[in-house]
């Protein structure tokens, strides 16, 4: 059976965390799967993360200046969503510039039908998990529907919680010109804001569903006006979702802040995708927006891994000796055997 060396990303983490006594763990796999060997630190308790939360990857921190430099150099900005510690860690170790704790987590991690059921408290919980795993990338937390619309003060209060408790670096909010006063207040207080125009999922009902925006002249005009208004209000950039590529490119060319496109073509200043979508975490047959490209098959990997484990549990080939704890002294075992025999302990009949 062939052996695959551990990925360089995992090696990066394990180099910091694996002690000299680290065991070499051979992952149980189905016969069809190649054998993957990953050295791991022996975990004392299931409540302990196998990866040190403090040992960050040796990455230079992405700041608002880094993003500005990328934009000025016309280097596309790569952003991906994350909703927990491992997905944050994967994104960060892959080297993305920005990590978004998007409210799509409502749909992809919590099984909700839309993003509007998500509360600020739930978002905070996930931001905390992601920010524990992300040490280099610039982290943006989404303001969920209902956490910022009532007044600028409402938005300020929620944003401070996302930054103070969620440990994100910037907040994202949906909307155009009507949100400009709120965005101005936030940015004047030193809270960086990423805007979101085009298809704004929190307003899907009033858009008639998850519909492509900017397809008519008036809709394209409104898109440009909204983009200019939130730029003027001080946004560091904006997500531009589900807009015809040509329109997105023209709007991008009229701005002096980056557009991060999703379903908006290659003419944007950067791209964002939902990590769960792009890595193929779902079984075949689930609807995917047209802009999703699969870069992985996580559902297959997960399912086959669990099948391999199940098979070995059923045939008692897992756990093997190396997965068990040895006795300290042989005499103790002998003494215990003799004592149990002496007690004549009977199995209770049920
Ligand atoms: N898993 C997931 N991925 C996402 O990208 C995502 C979410 N969830 N939830 C929040 C929003 C909703 N998103 C969506 C959802 C559906 C379409 C969609 O059905 N688009 C149609 C276009 C329809 C038209 O022509 O107007 C498509 O065919 O892609 C687009 C964006 C993007 N966001
Ligand atoms: C789809 C992206 C841009 C988003 O807003 C989210 O993940 O919630």
TrEMBL record:
It is an enzyme of class 2 (transferase). GO terms for biological process: methylation; pantothenate biosynthetic process. Belongs to the PanB family. It comes from the Eukaryota. InterPro entries: Pantoate_hydroxy_MeTrfase, Pyrv/PenolPyrv_kinase-like_dom, Pyrv_kinase-like_dom_sf. CDD domains: KPHMT-like (cd06557). Keywords: Methyltransferase, Pantothenate biosynthesis, Transferase. Catalyzes the reversible reaction in which hydroxymethyl group from 5,10-methylenetetrahydrofolate is transferred onto alpha-ketoisovalerate to form ketopantoate. The keyword Cell membrane does not apply. SUPFAM superfamilies: Phosphoenolpyruvate/pyruvate domain. This is 3-methyl-2-oxobutanoate hydroxymethyltransferase. It catalyses: (6R)-5,10-methylene-5,6,7,8-tetrahydrofolate + 3-methyl-2-oxobutanoate + H2O = 2-dehydropantoate + (6S)-5,6,7,8-tetrahydrofolate. GO terms for molecular function: 3-methyl-2-oxobutanoate hydroxymethyltransferase activity; magnesium ion binding; methyltransferase activity. GO terms for cellular component: mitochondrion. Pfam families: Pantoate_transf. It comes from Pyronema omphalodes (strain CBS 100304) (Pyronema confluens). Pathway: Cofactor biosynthesis; (R)-pantothenate biosynthesis; (R)-pantoate from 3-methyl-2-oxobutanoate: step 1/2. Its EC number is 2.1.2.11.
């Amino acid at each position: 059976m062939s052996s695959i060396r551990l990925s360089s990303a995992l090696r990066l983490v394990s180099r910091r965390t694996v002690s000299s006594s680290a065991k070499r763990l051979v992952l149980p796999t189905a016969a069809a799967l190649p054998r993957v060997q990953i050295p791991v630190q022996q975990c004392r308790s299931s409540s302990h993360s196998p990866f040190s939360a403090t040992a960050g990857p040796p990455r230079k921190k992405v700041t608002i200046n880094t993003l500005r430099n990328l934009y000025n150099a016309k280097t596309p900005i790569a952003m991906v969503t994350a909703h927990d510690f491992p997905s944050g860690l994967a994104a960060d170790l892959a080297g993305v510039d920005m990590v978004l704790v998007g409210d799509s987590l409502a749909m992809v991690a919590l099984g909700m039908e839309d993003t509007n059921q998500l509360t600020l408290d739930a978002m905070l919980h996930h931001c905390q998990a992601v920010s524990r795993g992300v040490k280099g990338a610039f982290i943006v937390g989404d303001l969920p529907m209902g956490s910022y619309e009532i007044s600028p003060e409402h938005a300020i209060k929620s944003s401070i919680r996302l930054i103070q408790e969620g440990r994100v670096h910037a907040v994202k909010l949906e909307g155009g010109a009507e949100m400009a006063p709120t965005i101005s207040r936030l940015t004047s207080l030193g809270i960086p804001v990423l805007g979101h125009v085009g298809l704004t999922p929190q307003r899907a009902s009033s858009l008639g569903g998850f519909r492509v925006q900017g397809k008519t002249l008036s809709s394209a005009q409104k898109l440009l006006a909204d983009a200019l208004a939130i730029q003027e209000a001080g946004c560091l950039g904006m997500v531009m979702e589900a807009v015809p590529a040509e329109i997105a490119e023209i709007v991008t060319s009229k701005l002096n802040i980056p557009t991060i496109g999703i379903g908006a073509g290659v003419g944007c200043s950067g791209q964002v995708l939902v990590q769960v979508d792009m890595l193929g975490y779902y079984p075949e047959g689930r609807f995917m927006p047209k802009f999703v490209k699969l870069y992985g098959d996580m559902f297959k990997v997960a399912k086959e891994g669990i099948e391999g484990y199940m098979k070995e549990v059923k045939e008692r080939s897992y756990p093997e000796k190396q997965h068990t704890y040895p006795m300290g002294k042989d005499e103790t075992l002998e003494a215990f055997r003799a004592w149990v025999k002496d007690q004549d302990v009977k199995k209770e009949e049920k």
